[in-house]
């Protein structure tokens, strides 16, 4: 992905409505960013805010989390917003942990819930 700042958006199934609403409500700020998202999350974000520049990758369980992890490791993702559902078991939990580990290792800003994403937004405007 060439040029511009890139934000990754991911949401577990029970959080996809929250992510779509977050994108709709904050589309002015998000419109200044290139966005990569896992498949279903990206589709829901585009439904809520069709004017955003969203590249949809594979679904999380089918490798989308790993694709975003690869983009983080190559310096192509600058921030991550991941609405995690801590109450539902995930069959691809190891992929989720690996993705979070890469965000930590590469020291990119990461929000794991709505409240933290709201706090992260002002830094995305810069």
UniProtKB/TrEMBL annotation:
The active site lies at: 65
| Annotated substrate binding sites | 12, 16, 38-41, 59-60, 92
Q: Describe the reaction catalysed, as an equation.
A: dihydroxyacetone phosphate = methylglyoxal + phosphate
Keyword tags: Lyase
Name of protein = Methylglyoxal synthase
Q: Could you tell me which PANTHER family the record lists for this protein?
A: METHYLGLYOXAL SYNTHASE
The record places domain MGS-like at: 1-126
Q: Name any one GO molecular function.
A: methylglyoxal synthase activity
Q: Which family does it belong to?
A: Belongs to the methylglyoxal synthase family.
Any GO CC annotation of this UniProt entry: cytosol
Entry EC number(s): 4.2.3.3
What is the role of the protein in this entry? Answer: Catalyzes the formation of methylglyoxal from dihydroxyacetone phosphate.
InterPro entries per the UniProt record, alphabetical: Methylgl_synth (IPR004363), Methylglyoxal_synth_AS (IPR018148), MGS-like_dom (IPR011607), MGS-like_dom_sf (IPR036914)
UniProt-listed GO biological process terms: methylglyoxal biosynthetic process
Q: Does the keyword Nucleotide-binding apply?
A: no
């Amino acid at each position: 992905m060439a040029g511009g700042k890139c934000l990754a958006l991911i949401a577990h199934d029970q959080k996809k409505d929250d992510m779509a609403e977050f994108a709709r409500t904050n589309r002015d700020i998000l419109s200044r960013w290139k966005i990569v998202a896992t498949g279903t999350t990206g589709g829901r974000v585009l439904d809520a805010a069709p004017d955003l520049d969203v590249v949809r990758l594979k679904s999380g369980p089918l490798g989308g989390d790993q694709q975003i992890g690869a983009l983080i490791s190559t310096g192509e993702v600058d921030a991550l917003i991941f609405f995690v559902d801590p109450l539902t078991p995930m069959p691809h939990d190891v992929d989720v942990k690996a993705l979070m580990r890469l965000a930590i290792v590469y020291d990119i800003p990461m929000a794991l819930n709505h409240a933290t994403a709201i706090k992260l937004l002002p830094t995305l405007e810069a």
